[in-house]
Design brief:
This protein has about 325 residues and is α/β, with parallel strands linked by helices. The protein is about 50% helix and about 10% strand. It is built from 14 helices and 6 strands. It has a 6-stranded parallel sheet with strand order 3-2-4-1-5-6, sandwiched between helices. It starts with 5 loop residues before the first strand and ends in an 8-residue tail after the last helix. The chain binds one RNA strand of 73 nucleotides through helix 3, helix 4, helix 8 and helix 13.
Length: about 325
RNA sequence: GGCAGGAUAGCUCAGUUGGUAGAGCAGGGGACUGAAAAUCCCCGUGUCGCCAGUUCGAUUCUGGCUCCGGCCA
């Protein structure tokens, strides 16, 4: 059924049941699942990132999971490249690529593309060494005031964004603000579904899932990952929960406090995700949950069949 | 029973030399182009435990009461 540039995206906050719905759809449509999750990319973070189980992965082809050791630094640009290639090969097999995940920036960048902004890790390392420390922010602002006042105004209080702006400026000689283009059309004929729960219900699901994860081996998984250097890794260390579990394992927290802390931090993530999807994805359709898989599958089919592009391939 | 404490925002607490109050956390909203499960911005009226007294005016001083955690018996 899928045409060449068709793309199904299942998005939504954490614990909204994206993976489960994708699996249900896979039972009704010919689709392959591509993870759109910045943390599932890493090996060794299984329970903590709620990866699909081995059984589920055997049942339906899953991609972009377990690709990297957590010592590795992955970013949007890399994800977009990987996912783009992946989508192509899925489509070549005649299946519908279904990106499933909650990393909004990754999804948006995949759908709409990334501007061709320069990046240079050596330059960046130099900039970071010079201006990334907390007490160097004022200095950084002074530099930007002279060289790129527009970006300074934009990120006056966000050191990290300003560092990136300086990187782009240093490499290209031009302001990042000037190199970024405005809104543009999607690269795929995309149906984005955002799973939408009643607030308290989602909160409840998060608390419940946190408890389940802690009760089914997350502590041990975290212990091993931490022993393997997770907390010193460049990006994987940001995965929620592991730092808190480290504190718990060090005896600084009760088990109940740990569960509560993780649930809180997870809820805060969910809120940020919802804000993102509310405002960054004009193409999105919100699906009231719990959703009926049959109805969703029908909606998906209708979307891609009725499309003017569908017959082309 | 005695001795000193504490009682202020959902929680932990600060404060007002008497003119009705503010931080952190939680919570809510927002931004977002190479760290995004990240980073950052905005949002704080609550019988200042209860009753009485002093005072123009008390959450702030005085007395009593209630409750809580201590210490001594």
């Amino acid at each position: 059924m899928a045409a060449k540039h068709d793309l199904l995206v299942i998005a939504g906050p954490t614990a909204s049941g994206k993976s489960a719905l994708a699996l249900e759809l896979a039972g009704r449509l010919n689709l392959e699942i591509i993870s759109g999750d910045s943390m599932q990319l890493y090996r060794g973070l299984d329970i903590g990132t709620a990866k699909p189980t081995a059984t589920e992965r055997r049942l339906v082809p899953h991609h972009l999971i377990d690709l990297f050791a957590f010592s590795e630094r992955v970013d949007v640009f890399r994800f977009v490249k990987l996912a783009g290639d992946c989508i192509e090969s899925v489509a070549a097999r005649g299946n519908l690529p279904c990106v499933v995940g909650g990393t909004g920036l990754y999804l948006k960048s995949l759908i709409y593309g990334l501007d061709d902004l320069p990046a240079d890790s050596a330059v960046r390392a130099r900039i970071d060494a010079q201006y990334a420390a907390g007490d160097r922010f004022e200095e950084l602002k002074k530099v930007m005031a002279a060289r790129d006042p527009v970006s300074l105004t934009r990120w006056e209080k966000n050191q990290r964004r300003l560092l990136r702006a300086l990187e782009v400026l240093t490499v290209s000689g031009r302001s990042i603000s000037e190199l970024q283009s405005g809104p543009r059309p999607a690269r795929y004929r995309t149906l984005t579904l955002v799973l939408d729960w009643e607030r308290d219900e989602l909160k409840r699901r998060i608390a419940e899932r946190t408890g389940k994860m802690l009760g089914s081996g997350w502590l041990e998984e975290a212990r091993i990952a931490i022993a393997g250097g997770l907390l010193d890794s460049p990006t994987a260390r940001q995965a929620i929960g592991y730092d808190l579990i480290a504190e718990y394992l060090a005896g600084n927290m009760t088990r109940n406090a740990l569960a509560a802390r993780i649930a809180t931090v997870t809820w805060q993530l969910a809120r940020r995700q919802l804000t993102w999807f509310r405002h960054q994805h004009p193409e999105a359709e919100w699906v009231e949950c719990p959703a009926d898989p049959d109805a969703v599958a029908e909606r998906v089919e209708r979307f891609f069949r009725s499309s003017p592009v569908a017959g082309r391939n």
